[in-house]
Design brief:
The protein has 202 residues and is an alpha+beta fold. It has one domain. The chain is 57% helix and 11% strand. It is built from 10 helices and 4 strands. Strands 2-4-1-3 form a 4-stranded mixed sheet, covered by helices on one side. It is globular.
């Protein structure tokens, strides 16, 4: 898997810059080449032969609905996520804070519901434990983002200015993920398709 480096299509917009930092800050251009433990979702290249092999197990549409599960599966088979420095993608971002929060929340709830209810159903205890764990997830996201930014001083100012939006995204998404573990995905999958394909971006 090859992870792109990302730039903003609207660097003059505070919200656009901030959403990009919150969602793709770990892979912002310029990046450092090398293997990664975690990839971005929906904006990554795969080897075709790997996808064709996995398509025999389940439809690719199902794999891509919870893409980080696909990443983990490929990694468990010995695959590597490689950060490219010269494959640069210009990313469009959300126009309003509420739309960005809704999009992140829908994705996280869908992922949690797919994990907890998509296969053999998890026990109530396990679902409650994962939901409770979401209390520390915003801090974990912020720590991982900070660790990726520290070696790249060119992004320090961007990171600091985006803190209010980053925190809002991480807190809202963690709450939505907790709901997914407890109550399943609901209609979050359909909501995410709508926000991905129909909401205006810039």
């Amino acid at each position: 898997m090859v992870n792109y480096s990302f730039i903003d299509t609207e660097p003059g917009s505070y919200l656009s810059r901030s959403f990009l930092m919150a969602e793709y800050g770990r892979w912002l251009h310029p990046t450092r080449p090398g293997p990664l433990p975690i990839a971005s979702c929906a904006n990554i290249s795969y080897r075709r032969d790997i996808l064709m092999r996995l398509a025999k197990e389940r439809p690719l549409e199902e794999w891509f609905r919870a893409e980080y599960i696909l990443h983990r599966r490929i990694q468990s088979d010995g695959g590597v996520i490689w950060q490219s420095t010269d494959a640069v993608g210009a990313h469009e971002d959300w126009v309003t804070l509420s739309e960005g929060l809704h999009a992140n929340g829908a994705l996280k709830r869908y992922h949690a519901g797919a994990i907890a209810f998509g296969g053999p159903p998890w026990s109530l205890f396990r679902r409650c434990a994962y939901a409770a764990g979401m209390l520390v997830v915003p801090a974990l996201h912020m720590w991982r983002l900070l660790c990726s930014i520290i070696p790249r001083p060119c992004h320090w100012g961007h990171f600091i200015s985006a803190l209010p939006v980053s925190l809002a995204v991480y807190i809202y998404a963690a709450a939505a993920e907790a709901v997914g573990y407890l109550g399943g995905p609901g209609d979050s999958g359909e909501h995410f398709v709508v926000v991905e394909l129909e909401l205006a971006r810039k």
